[in-house]
Structures are given as structure tokens and as C-alpha cells.
Amino acid sequence: MRDGAVHLFGIRLLGVDGQTGRKLLLTLTFILVVWLAGRALRWLLGAIGHAVDSARFRFWSRQALSLLLTGLLVVGLLSIWFDDPARLGTVLGLFTAGIAFALQRVITACAGYMLILRGKTFNVGDRIVMGGVRGDVIALSIMQTRIMEMGEPPPVQTAEPAVWVHSRQFTGRIVTVTNDKVFDEPVYNYTHHFPYIWDEIRLPVRYDDDRATAERILLEAARAHAVTAEGIDADRLAELERRYNLQPPEISPRVYWRLTDNWLELSIRFLAHDHGTREVKDRMSRQILEQLDAAGIGIASATYDIVGLPPIRLDRADN
After folding, report:
1. What domains does the chain contain, in order, with CATH numbers?
2. Of residues 196, 192, 64, 51, the one with CA closest to residue 125
């Protein structure tokens, strides 16, 4: 350092004086210290998380640590470079205006991250639909949410984007969705405060079959494999009622009848856990088919019975 300027290998660095050089060195040292502290704290929180075996603790501790380190970096760098409050206000005004114009989506994504945390929209491990993507949340950062994609159930198989798995099971793809989607589209959460979903199996039955027996078969299958009123967590129902002032919903399986032109449609409505619904429906379907065969009840289909033909007359011309 000569004449108040900083020289590197005999070359004078343009615009870098002694004070600026000291601030640069202090900045690099401060960033290194924060990075090392972050690594140490992440290791410590990881050890505590494995000890308590709580996915929720690991998620929220990582989020709190990320926000703490980011805030510490911002405050520290501002303190190093802008010791004059008037100068800081001018720079911040220009910086904010430029950022607001050039990085609108980035700012919106950061605001979406704060909304997700503050509104408790979802946590890591929740099964959600966000930005048209269905699946389980596996990571959440300030800018993005990563989702382990699952297939689409039959009623929404034509929805975009198209997938090849026609059920709520993983496809193997990890999809990244920016957090600004929470301002553009609704977020559907399968898990939040009530980790159960209602589902249905529809059974078309001919009108001349034993309808009462078919209904009994559906109810027996649901009671054997779905969630019943005795098996549900009473604390979950109480929490649902306390938070949203909702009356306890109907838990027991129930069969609904619907008349059509061709058959009687029996729909068994039942409750299942938010994960593993396909396995439940598979076990129910196997039991239902086995008992329908034993009872001699067939599944109605769109076929036609020809009950008569008009008389046909053939005239042969003699040659």
C-alpha cells in the first residue's frame, strides 16, 4: 500500500484505497466466519434431529438457521460498507428501485416463502398440489419448493402435465416449483392438520341382481381395509374442530345409490390415510370381486340384448 492506494504485484488497483481494501478483507473474513458457523450449526442441528427423530424439528430448524444466517450476512455487510446512515439510505433507495424492476419474480418468490412459513401452508413431508404438480414436499428454500411427483388419479388423468402413473404413487421425478406460485394458484394440502382423505369406489350393478347383497359386500370391504371411526385419531378430529370450527365429519363407510339408464351405480365412500390409498383400494377391489363372484352378482356393462327380429322375406327370381 503506497500513497493511500492498494497495489497488487506492483499494479495499482483502480478505485481501491486503503480503507476500501480493509473493508474487502473484512468482508471476506466475515463471510468465511459465517459460512463456517453455518456448517457447524447445521451439523449440530442434524445430530439433534436424528436424536429426537422428528422430521418437523429438522425442517423448522433448517429454515430458522437459513433465515438467521441470511439476516446476519445482510446486517454485517451493511455495517462494514455503510457506516454513514445518510449514504446508506441513498444507496438502499437506488438498490431497492433497481431490484424491484429487474427481479420482480425473485422478490415474489421470496415473499411466497415467507407466506408459506408464516401461514403454515405446508411442511416438508406434506402431500400437496402446487403449480400443477402433485406429490410430497421434500425440500423448501427461499426461492423454490422441491416435490417428489406422484401420478394422477383417474378423475384428473387429463390434467397437465401428463404423467404415466395413473394413481397417487411416485413417478420418480423431482419437480422444482418456484414459491411465487402460492400467489397465482391455490395450494392443495392432503396432510395439513388432518392426514386423511375421502375416496370412492363405484360399482355398476344390474337392476335384476341382488342390490342389498352388493351393498353389504361393499360395506364389508370398506370396514375391513379403510379407516373406521374406531381407528381414527380422536385428537386429529378435535384439532380440526378447534382450528376451523368444523363439526366432526362422517367417518363410517357409506354406500350411495344412483340410478342410470343402464344400471344401478353403487358408490362406497370411505376414509383412508393420505398415503397408501392405492393399496387400500386394491385390497378392497379384490375382496369385492371375490364376494360378488360367490354371490353370483355380475358387474354391469354397456352391452345390448337383441330380443327380437322382424320377419325377413326372401324373393328368388327364376331364371
Report:
1. 5-102 (no CATH), 127-189 (no CATH), 196-295 (3.30.70.100)
2. 192
